[in-house]
Amino acid sequence: MRILIVDDSKAMRMIVKRTLRQAGFTDIDIVEGATGKEALDMILADAPDLVLSDWNMPEMNGIECLEELNKQGVKVRFGFVTSEGTPEMLQRAQAAGALFVITKPFTADNFKEKLSDILVAS
Amino acid sequence: MRVSPIDSRGWLDSMHDAVKEMAVTMLGVREDSIRIEKDNEAAAAALFEESTYFTTISLDEDLQVRIVSDIEGCLCLSGALMGLTPKDAEVLSPSQIADAMGELVNIVAGILKTRLADHLSSVNLGLPNFLKGRVRPTADQEICAMMVGFNEVKFQVVILRNKQES
């Protein structure tokens, strides 16, 4: 299972990786991107099994990346790990087809709850 | 345009909860070890004397959230976020510190934005910046500030906003 972690913060990408391991998801290969544009290019080149993306990033944010994938007809399992948690943001994520939104601050249990079905199903 | 205004006490109460949630969840701090002083004026006065570094993010059109500390405080906070001991955190580079501090203010601002959604415009959070210097409000701005401490770490959390029209 290949997971793409997208966040402009290298520290946060490290924390997401660590939390995935703490949640028991150890049989995974992780690739990383720092912007929505980078993630888009990586997904179009070689789609991962799952994308965990931040929302606010320079040079294309996470929701713009997902909406662009939709526009291009590219299907990939996509969810957000973000500090944005307002109802409007959640609605926009859902409308774009995001499978989940994990809000920061998060725990390993949050990851287990949101990802268990997705990662087991693969 | 805000739906309804929040007074200083409302801000301080929300900041108190946001900082606690961030520290316990992301920094692994025991809740009972967190010391928070919500005395607004004393904390605001201390800002101008002690602050040397701060990370800032825009929460709303005219509102910023900042975390302010000296370099030792920034190192400890950054190290705690990354799961490092204070000694291991000493090797963090300036860009790593800026990155980690930016994430911390991003998390605090996100909690505030979610909790106070009815009182804020629905713009996205800005991208954080990490700067050296003192926090000085302009004549048009007002401050809500609190002092936070746990273990050896001491820092300030600040809301800087345009003065409300009467």
Give a brief rundown of this model.
Chain A has helices at residues 10-22, 36-45, 62-71, 87-95, 108-121, and strands at residues 2-6, 29-33, 50-53, 78-82, 101-103.
Q: How does this model look, in words?
A:
- The model of chain A has no long low-confidence stretch (mean pLDDT 94).
- In chain A, helix 2 runs parallel beside helix 3 (62-71).
- Chain A is built from five helices and five strands, in the order βαβαβαβαβα.
- Chain A is α/β, with parallel strands linked by helices and 122 residues long.
- In chain A, helix 4 links the parallel strand 4 (78-82) and strand 5.
- A five-stranded parallel sheet of chain A has the order 2-1-3-4-5.
- Chain A starts with a strand and ends with a helix.
- Chain A has helices at 10-22, 36-45, 62-71, 87-95, 108-121; strands at 2-6, 29-33, 50-53, 78-82, 101-103.
- The radius of gyration of chain A is 13 Å and the shape is globular.
- Chain B is built from five helices and six strands, in the order αβαββαααβββ.
- The two termini of chain B are 15 Å apart.
- Chain B has 166 residues and is an alpha+beta fold.
- In chain B, helix 3 crosses helix 5 (94-115).
- Chain B has a six-stranded antiparallel sheet, sandwiched between helices.
- In chain B, 43% of the residues are buried.
- The chains are: A alpha/beta (122), B alpha+beta (166).
- The interface between A and B is medium-sized, with 26 and 26 residues.
The ordered string of helix (H) and strand (E) elements of chain A is: EHEHEHEHEH
Q: In which range does the helix fraction of chain B lie?
A: 40-55%
Structural class of chain A: alpha/beta
Q: State the separation between the terminal residues of chain A, measured CA to CA.
A: 7 Å
Q: Which percent bin holds the helix content of chain A?
A: 40-55%
Major pleated sheet of chain B:
6 strands, antiparallel
Strand percent estimate of chain A: 15-25%
Distance between the termini of chain B: 15 Å
Tally of extended strands of chain A?
Answer: 5
Discrete helix count of chain A = 5
Low-confidence stretches of chain B: none
Q: Structural class of the helix and strand makeup of chain B?
A: alpha+beta
